[in-house]
């Protein structure tokens, strides 16, 4: 098999000045390990995880109030015990003074879709967090209390989160475009004390008043003591803007800050595994699982990811397009840990056109630009050209949320040139990070993720639980990481957590993706392993199928479902297509049959092609492959998927009709 094209090669001078290079030098100078290249360093990090994570904590001067007795007291999974006895606080690391965090350094840049923009220095951020913290404390919020937020990606949200974390209280957020039931299903599990929300939000050229949703949400959360409302659209002339702040507000945001004005900035020391926030599984079947991450694990993991893998630090402007309902928001704001300026954007990424975010990057001299693979694919399909934008500050483009196609890599390289690193990044909400992705001294190959992350013992396992190379296998982690979930919420015996990750390979984390680990050490993600295409013994991930289908100019979106193994020994392969206006199913189907046979295999040519108006997606934008498979094979739709967990529940109707036919 021919070696893939190299689309980015590290500059030796730049790599030699990176934080990763400085970390290696620091390790060598202290006699910890002598690692001349990335692979040697990675091997040490997974063979001796206790030494690696302890060294990382020391290198980044993690501020332990009480020192740990050891780095890793128990390495079993589940149940690993990291840094027992240690106390610290995430917010203290995000806001502590130091290089790049002096009062006059820029901490936050914010822009809203309609042009509203402003920034905050680190001094202003500290002052406002201190005020919010003091006011929340006066409202009775303390260690272990839950603060939930139905909020956009704005500075007020960041301030509220840091204030919550500084108190040792527990944060959880949803994007304001979530439906009421989806929000209730998440927040009601936590029995929150405080709700922080807004009067309305902006998306795709118009405003949306959410006062009715807030009132219903308050009625569904009987433990609420206080509702804080940010007048987010106050003064906006956008159609649909609310005329006043919700009547349900117990206190407005600005009044909250005034109550705490002049307060000292303090931090509650908490244990290493004390809950920092609760993130959620998709909730497509049953209630979403509340995934609890700890202060210490997230602090260490995000210091490592930001500093060593993205080489981010003072002087960088770190951006990722995200909402507060996706883990990438939690990842983005951790740019503060390394002294970067975090760049927040709220609104549609495609308004008034696909160029909007790229122009934003040019305007703000963004150095690290993160987005999703579907967004890059949409830019490609739109034939967007980036030459009109001055992106000379840009050095890394990150992509996550789905496998980035080879065509997506090519489009980025053609538009940004060979000096911009393509950082395809794969992980998940479960660990709130990526564990395969970029390194400043490793090449980028077309269609591949460069390396497993430091401390991430990534492998591909076959059906017998044996590692394989250059072959498709289950993505697993064979050693614990500090940012693995502390627990699931309301899972006192840990049974749901064990079932989610450890029921297939005891003592080994099974992530649920198909992956190929290549002989070069790079990796290729093929899609979810529970929705794989297994045709005549040839197993293939859905990502490869979508790469072929969605490169067709007549296809706007697609969904592939293999019913094999569910409806008898041999099921059918279905391909659902959302067609462009001028395209016909007859023409597109004929061309796709030829291309799928040529690029994949004759066995992966679908039995049926069906035109649909939309592809059902979760609230985080992922295609609903497994729920649709259940519906097509006769499962009761109400048991197969929760409509409240979908962006577009109406998209299910055509699949339900087919399943009942």
UniProtKB/TrEMBL annotation:
Alphabetically ordered keywords of this record: ATP-binding, Ligase, Nucleotide-binding
Domain of life of the native organism: Bacteria
Protein name, UniProt field: Acetoacetate--CoA ligase
Pfam families the record matches: ACAS_N (PF16177), AMP-binding (PF00501), AMP-binding_C (PF13193)
CDD domains: AACS
GO molecular function, one term: acetoacetate-CoA ligase activity
Biological process per Gene Ontology, one example term: lipid metabolic process
Keyword S-adenosyl-L-methionine attributed: no
């Amino acid at each position: 098999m021919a070696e893939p094209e190299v689309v980015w090669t590290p500059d030796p001078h730049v790599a030699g000045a990176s934080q990763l290079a400085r970390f290696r030098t620091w390790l060598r100078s202290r006699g910890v390990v002598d690692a001349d290249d990335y692979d040697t360093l990675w091997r040490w990090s997974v063979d001796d995880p206790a030494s690696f994570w302890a060294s990382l904590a020391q290198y980044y001067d993690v501020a332990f109030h009480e020192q740990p007795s050891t780095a890793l007291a128990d390495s079993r999974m589940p149940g690993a015990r990291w840094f027992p006895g240690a106390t610290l606080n995430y917010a203290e690391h995000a806001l502590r003074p130091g290089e790049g965090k002096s009062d006059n350094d820029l901490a936050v840049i914010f822009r809203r879709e309609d042009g509203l923009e402003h920034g905050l220095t680190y001094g202003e951020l500290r002052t406002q967090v201190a005020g919010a913290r003091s006011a929340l404390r006066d409202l009775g919020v303390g260690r272990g209390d839950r603060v939930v937020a139905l909020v956009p990606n704005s500075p007020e949200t960041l301030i509220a989160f840091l204030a919550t974390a500084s108190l040792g209280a527990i944060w959880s957020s949803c994007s304001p475009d979530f439906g009421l039931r989806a929000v209730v299903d998440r927040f009601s599990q936590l029995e929150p004390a405080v709700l922080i929300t807004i009067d309305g939000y902006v998306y795709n050229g118009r405003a949306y008043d959410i006062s009715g949703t807030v009132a219903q949400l308050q009625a569904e959360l009987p433990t609420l003591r206080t509702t804080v409302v940010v007048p987010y659209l106050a003064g906006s002339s956008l159609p649909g803007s609310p005329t006043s702040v919700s009547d349900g507000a117990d206190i407005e945001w600005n009044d909250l800050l005034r109550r705490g004005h002049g307060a000292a900035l303090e931090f509650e020391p908490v244990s290493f595994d004390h809950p920092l926030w609760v993130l959620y599984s998709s909730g497509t079947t049953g209630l979403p699982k509340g995934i609890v991450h700890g202060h210490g694990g997230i602090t260490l993991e995000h210091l490592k990811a930001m500093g060593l893998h993205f080489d981010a630090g003072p002087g960088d402007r770190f951006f990722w397009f995200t909402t507060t309902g996706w883990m990438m928001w939690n990842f983005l704001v951790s740019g503060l840990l390394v002294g970067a300026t975090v760049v927040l954007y709220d609104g549609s990424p495609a308004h008034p056109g696909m160029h909007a975010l790229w122009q934003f990057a040019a305007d703000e001299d963004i150095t690290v630009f993160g987005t999703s693979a579907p967004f890059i694919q949409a830019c490609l399909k739109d034939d967007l050209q980036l030459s009109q934008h001055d992106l000379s500050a840009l050095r890394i483009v990150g992509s996550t949320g789905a496998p980035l196609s080879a065509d997506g890599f090519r489009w980025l390289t053609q538009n940004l040139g060979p000096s911009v690193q393509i950082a395809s990044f794969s992980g998940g909400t479960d660990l709130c990070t990526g564990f395969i992705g970029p390194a400043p001294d490793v090449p980028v190959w077309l269609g591949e993720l460069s390396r497993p992350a430091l401390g991430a013992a990534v492998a591909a396992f076959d059906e017998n639980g044996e590692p394989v190379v250059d072959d498709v296998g289950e993505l697993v982690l064979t050693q614990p990481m500090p940012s693995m979930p502390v627990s699931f919420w309301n899972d006192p015996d840990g049974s749901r957590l064990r079932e989610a990750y450890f029921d297939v390979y005891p003592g080994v984390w099974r992530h649920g993706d198909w992956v190929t680990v290549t002989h070069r050490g790079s990796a290729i993600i093929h899609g979810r392993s529970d929705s794989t295409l297994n045709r005549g013994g040839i197993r293939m991930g859905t990502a490869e199928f979508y790469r072929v289908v969605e490169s067709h100019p007549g296809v706007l979106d697609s969904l592939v479902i293999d019913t094999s193994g569910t409806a008898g020994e041999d099921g059918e392969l279905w391909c659902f297509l959302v067609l462009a206006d001028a395209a016909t199913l007859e023409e597109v189907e004929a061309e796709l049959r030829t291309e799928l046979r040529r690029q994949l295999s004759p066995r992966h040519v679908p039995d049926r092609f069906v035109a649909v108006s939309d592809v059902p997606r979760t609230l985080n934008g992922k295609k609903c492959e497994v729920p649709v498979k259940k519906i097509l094979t006769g499962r009761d739709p109400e048991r197969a998927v929760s409509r409240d967990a979908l962006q577009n529940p109406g998209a299910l109707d055509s699949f339900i009709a087919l399943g009942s036919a």
